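Task card 7
Instruction: Convert sequence to structure tokens.
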Amino acid sequence: MASVGAAKVQLLGNKGAVAASVVSAADGSFTLYAPPGRYRLRAEVESLYPRCEEAAVTIRKGRLARAELRCDSGMR
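Output:
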């Protein structure tokens, strides 16, 4: 699976409000900081592809949360 660099990654809280946002590194990695809670993680790029699925993330006090987004490159 290829990494998606320069994607806008957003952590969405209750009612879709953006709790944190960052642009992914060339290798697709990213780090976001947010208070404890339940969130949806979303990645967007400026082109039609890749398209990435949203993922549910729960952040607990004093703990790190890891998430991996799956993206469709459009190649068949």
